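## retry 2 of 3
previous attempt timed out at serialization; input unchanged, resubmitting
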Amino acid sequence: MNLKILLQPKQADLLALLETTGPDVATILGAGGSRGSAKSGGLRRIAITLAITHPGSVIYIVRRTLGDLLENHMEKIALEFPEVDAIYRPSDYEYDFSVVPNLLPNGERNRSRIVFVYAENAIDVARVSYGPECTFLLIDQAEQFTEEELTSFRICNRHTEVDTKKTVPPNFAKTCYFFNIGVGGLADAYFRRVFHKRDFKPYKGINDPGERPGDYAFIQMYGWDNFEWFRGQVEVAVEEFYQLSSAERFEMFVTRTSEGRKMNALPKHRREGELLGNFDAFTGQYFSDVWDDARILPVELVNRIVQDWWVRWMGQDWAFHEHAYHCWMVTGKVSPADWFRYFGVETEWPVDVVILYRELLISGRAEMDLANDIAEMTPERERKYISNFYLSEDAFGKRSRQRGANTVGEAFSGVMRRHGLPAPTTADQDRVNGHRFMYNCLRQASMRIMRVDVERAKQGPALFISANCPAAIENIPLAPRDPENPDDVLRVAGVVWEDVVDGIRYALKSKLSPRRIVPSEVRRQEVFNQAAGNPTGQALAMRQFEEAERRRGNVTRPNWRNA
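## retry succeeded, writing output
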């Protein structure tokens, strides 16, 4: 089997990483980038090269579905490498190199195999993870799997005896993720954390070893690294092409190739991910077109905007083994004059503002300890102004047969009351309307960078996130749409972004649902402000407001006097 396998430069670099051994080499590799950057093509060529040059290796090519494996790899190998296709065993979905006689210099047969592996669900993931071992684990379209699934796959990635007469070198077995960046994948947050931000979980002990930075290596791939887009469209030889700088090839790609022009014409939020491979682009996620830095407020500005009489409350998505996310919110009205003072743009009408100003993200925390954490994080002077605590229904046993005094919600209640905080009540669980409400509140936050007319100001509150809440800032833009229900956020148990977004959704919609009347404290302050400068009129307006509230049955503490 005399094959001539040509690798593009970055594909060759990746092969070198896969073949490097030693006590300190990286064993978890990433090949990520924009669409059309020859990731899948490189995977096929690298797999065949490894099978030939490392006899006895077992190479897994993994994708979510078997159909995608056969269409995107088996059929293309048949076209590109008919010699390899001749050793395909359809009953086992594998290429068996042992059927090729005298492949090795010593006349022995090569015992390498390239195996197609798919995992559509949790059962499949467990089947692969605890099944036969593989030397090289190559996962294509890896963004379609969750971090937990990708981590589980690595259980099967172990040293395989390449030659029984030789000792397997250290860190010979490798895992490599091939993935698109910024397309709304399940693993976007994981890849962004370990390959872009290099933010690794710390060592906490033998039972929680964390992540070693030296175990990870990444190669960024772009469409303009792939010569095939230029073939027949640009008069440049392969050798000359790869001697050009990346900037020169990019300019040529977006101006002189049909694929490059198409990608360059994408809407800005898609162009960032699909063309430029930008880890900070959020194409395809639920909040992608209503999320940018305009939604984030410096802590100093939050302190200036929030007034003593504004309404405060809390929300939480509770979990023990996964992530508990607790947040503090505040809402009030900002006058046109103050809006201009804070943001430098004009509004014709007072703007309703909601600010997420404090958060707690934690896992594995006992209920009573978590309740005390919440109390300690809430300044004592602030506690009397916290009006509500909305907690996910699972904390009250609503999803099981658990009820009564032994629920998590009841455990929280005693601690909350002892610290002068409200006991939790069940949050509004409406997912679709809750996410749509959160989406529209983030949309309203763009008013800080535009002139606001009366109609826009009346379309709902503007949700801002304090810079003091990094988990919210990190995870809101990562939440993907549910492909089967685009009006909802995808449910993926255990991922951080789902728990964070759910906690915010519970707090936001439970308190400020459009079906609910605006909180009495907010309406009271609005009446008070409208009569500013006229003490007599102010007193009369407040007397009329309090009478109307008594008739409505909404008797609340008149903290408009900054009590």
